[in-house]
Hints:
Blueprint (H helix, E strand, L loop, with lengths): L3 E3 L2 H14 L8 E6 L3 E3 L2 E3 L1 E5 L2 H6 L13 E6 H6 L2 H13 L1 E3 L7 E3 L8 H6 L6 H25 L4
Parallel strand pairs: 2-6
Antiparallel strand pairs: 1-2, 3-4, 5-6, 7-8
Helix pairs in contact: 1-4
The protein binds zinc ion.
Amino acid sequence: MLRYEDVPGRVYDVLEFVKKGWFPELKGAKILPVFNTQMARNKGKVVLASIRKANDLQKYLTVEGQSKSTTGYDYILTLDKVTWRRAGKENRIRIIRHELRHTQVHMSSTDPWGLRGHSIEDFYSEIKLNKRDPRWAQKLVGITEAVYSAKRKEANLRKKGGIE
Ligand SMILES: [Zn+2]
């Protein structure tokens, strides 16, 4: 089984909704969302989603992607599949909105699609937007860890012949 999977069309709908609502400058950016089917960690912390700039090879490999784009994608948005499936509508928007905050657009540049990091857990503008549930990400991390841990236990049991 491959680690990464195509996402259903609904993910593209949420992505478009977030782009339109909060990131008009990303209108011309091609963003490829993919599911990661294995839990990722960065410095020990569970990664619910991440965004990267497509390198030249990834651009080339995504030329005939779902958008039938002729130039490939500018960004690759990786979403933990377990997290996404357990997240409600509002949290799905929060996840993508957080990731798109990592983009930095330089329109005057020949390659306008940049990235930026953050020194705190969430961006200041996101803290305001998420004030109804400031611990949304921590909660999703807890759910995600529990689901993967249950999957591991089940796989171990199956190996031992405990369950079918
Ligand atoms: Zn972040």
